[in-house]
Design brief:
The longest helix has 41 residues. α1 runs parallel beside α13. The protein is mainly alpha-helical and 368 residues long. It has one domain. The protein contains 16 helices and no strands.
């Protein structure tokens, strides 16, 4: 979705007579899905160990291993290009980048040189905050999440209406950003699912799809404005994705139904695709553009070509680089942090059936 959404900017910049409608930018809602899924996955991975401080080192190690190596590779490549030809970087910024902040994913005034990294800054914040919440007893985790989300909402309202807060530090802006609520929605789905609360998955799925369609239709005339208004964005797509994920989890856990299972390889490569699609677009478009005229079909062929190149590159990166790195880092984690690593991935029975007492499993297991 995000890769498709970014084709709109490429179409506007490189190809004569842009054809893609502005509604293509609704693909940016894939970021909201990314955050909702993250909330669900974090709860799902740690549901048997919440309340035990011993799992936190392994949890953070796993999150760092998942995000940073591929980010460093992608950002490193872009940084080299920027040093040679700054104008070749599609999202080039004025002045010198803050390489220390960019490589560490630390929030600062400007977006990273590889602009998609702004979401990873949010993601690392989610992980650290969630790791702190794991110190709470399992039965209190939900209250901790609620308190976190209330803090975010109140903090953002304060920044919005307090004139003295204008120009607040990037860290304060990050901590109070409304998009954090998407993570909270996903975590709520994880808590409900772990307790066996997975009612009428097809209804949940249909409701989520309907919500997303209505939200998109209401903002059809100015889709980009939707993503520039963070509260409007969260309310438009956060609940929609949460219901969709909730429904899909119910279909898989209770009915064994996994739609589009054959595309799981593409899903495994989605992080690589997210990191490299904009640079791939920018480089490939410079090669393709001179051969494109003003006709619409040239643009369509160019879109398909660019997306295909990006997907194939991502698949290769995942197989040849990402998987070997993750495999080695997972072995290190299991060797040096065995207690927490035993919980990630969790025990074989993912969620159990509804007639199992998931509530007792979730809340009563004692960890030494």
């Amino acid at each position: 979705m995000v890769a498709t959404g970014h084709l709109y900017g490429i179409d506007q910049r490189f190809f004569g007579g842009p054809v893609l409608p502005a509604s293509a930018q609704f693909g940016f809602a894939g970021v909201d899905l990314f955050f909702v899924l993250s909330g669900f996955v974090m709860v799902h991975l740690t549901r048997f160990g919440a309340g035990s401080a011993s799992i936190i080192p392994a949890f953070l190690f796993a999150r760092i291993a998942r995000i940073y190596p591929m980010w460093w590779i992608a950002l490193g490549a872009i940084s080299i290009v920027w040093m040679i030809r700054p104008g070749w970087v599609f999202a080039s910024i004025s002045g010198a980048p803050n390489f220390l902040a960019d490589f560490s994913l630390w929030p600062h005034q400007r977006p990273p040189l590889l602009a998609v990294g702004w979401t990873l800054i949010h993601e690392m914040y989610f992980y650290v905050a969630f790791a702190i919440l794991l110190l709470l007893p399992a039965r209190r985790l939900a209250w901790g999440l609620i308190g976190w989300m209330v803090m975010v909402a109140i903090g953002n309202v304060w920044l919005t209406f307090d004139s003295t807060a204008i120009g607040a530090s990037p860290m304060v802006t990050l901590i109070t950003h409304p998009l954090t609520l998407n993570f909270g929605l996903g975590a709520a789905v994880g808590l409900f699912a772990a307790r066996g609360l997975r009612p009428m998955p097809q209804v949940l799925l249909g409701f989520g799809v309907a919500w997303a369609l209505v939200a998109g239709f209401l903002e059809l005339q100015s889709p980009l404005a939707l993503f520039e208004s963070n509260w409007q964005r969260v309310l438009s797509f956060g609940p929609a994705w949460a219901f969709i994920v909730w429904g899909m989890v119910g279909l898989e856990a209770d009915r064994g139904y996994v739609p589009l299972k054959k595309l799981s390889g593409l899903g495994d490569s989605s992080y690589a695709l997210y990191l490299i699609h904009v640079p791939i677009y920018a480089a490939s478009a410079r090669i393709i553009a001179p051969f494109c005229g003003s006709g619409a079909w040239d643009n369509v062929i160019a879109w398909l070509g660019l997306l295909t190149i990006a997907v194939i590159t991502a698949l290769l990166m995942h197989q040849l680089i990402e998987r070997p790195i993750l495999k080695r880092l997972t072995k290190l984690r299991c060797k040096f942090l065995p207690t927490g690593s035993a919980l990630m991935p969790s025990p074989p029975s993912p969620l159990g059936t509804k007639d199992e007492n998931n509530f007792v499993i979730f809340n009563r297991i004692k960890w030494s």
